[in-house]
Specification:
The structure holds 2 protein chains of 2 kinds.
Chain A (H helix, E strand, L loop, with lengths): L2 E3 L4 E5 L4 E3 L2 E3 L5 E7 L5 E7 L5 E3 L5 E5 L4 E6 L8 E8 L8 E2 L3 E6 L1
Parallel strand pairs in A: 2-12
Antiparallel strand pairs in A: 1-4, 3-9, 5-6, 5-10, 7-8, 8-9, 10-11, 10-12
Chain B lengths: L4 E3 L2 E4 L5 E6 L6 E8 L3 E9 L2 E4 L8 E7 L2 E6 L8 E8 L8 E2 L3 E5 L1
Parallel strand pairs in B: 2-11
Antiparallel strand pairs in B: 1-3, 3-8, 4-5, 4-9, 5-6, 7-8, 9-10, 9-11
The chains are: A mainly beta, B mainly beta.
Chain lengths: 114, 114
């Protein structure tokens, strides 16, 4: 069965430090992969997506993610975090149709230390 | 585009009352999804529609919950009768088959049942 795992429930990093949020997926074929961000009291906003091609994808707000088939991972990275990056981050995957279920990970809450 | 529109943004009701949540998807999107988010259970998919037809309602918690999509631009999620454990944030999202597949989320409806 399709699943998405985010092993880190909560991460705290200092402002200006680099960030990596982990995501592992389980799917029979190469899925479509997404990272969403949710600020407090807000809906989810798409940061970036991977469908095919270049395994390093760039997103909004300076985020990037790398698809590694051998590790079934799609980790999110940012070289230097800002206080405004404090939020909940969700990794997600889906199949080849918009009618397919999108499976969300449980989320990672990011806190920024001043 | 105005994005996904949900109403009301906040709803406070008493146990036993009927609650109706509304969603207007992005124009041209043909899939619509209803989610519920709580601290305890995270983000749960309740039901999704494709071309106005319910595809999977296995996430609907019980018969008190029902959802309809009478046309491509409107959907409702109804809870009757409501219970305190239904208190949550309910999100609507829509997506398109036109190469995108990612879901665009509305701002959510925060429901409180007392």
């Amino acid at each position: 069965a399709q699943s998405v795992t985010q092993p880190d429930i909560h991460i705290t990093v200092s402002e200006g430090a680099s960030l990596e949020l982990r995501c592992n997926y389980s799917y029979g074929a190469t899925p479509y992969l997404f990272w969403y961000v949710q600020s407090p009291g807000q809906g989810l906003q798409l940061l970036l997506k991977y469908f095919s091609g270049d395994t390093l994808v760039q997103g909004i707000k300076g985020f990037e993610a790398e698809f590694k088939r051998s590790q079934s991972s799609f980790n999110l990275r940012k070289p230097s975090v800002h206080w405004s990056d404090a939020a909940e981050y969700f990794c997600a995957s889906t199949g080849y149709s918009s009618a397919s279920k999108i499976i969300f990970g449980s989320g990672t809450r990011l806190s920024i230390r001043p | 585009d105005a994005g996904v529109i949900q109403s009301p943004r906040h709803e406070v009701t008493e146990m036993g009352q009927e609650v109706t949540l509304r969603c207007k998807p992005i124009s041209g999107h043909n899939s619509l999804f209803w989610y519920r988010q709580t601290m305890m259970r995270g983000l749960e998919l309740l039901i999704y529609f494709n071309n106005n037809v319910p595809i999977d309602d296995s996430g609907m918690p019980e018969d008190r919950f029902s959802a309809k999509m009478p046309n491509a631009s409107f959907s409702t999620l109804k809870i009757q009768p409501s219970e305190p454990r239904d208190s949550a944030v309910y999100f609507c999202a829509s997506s398109s088959e036109d190469g995108a597949y990612e879901q665009y989320f509305g701002p959510g409806t925060r429901l409180t049942v007392t």
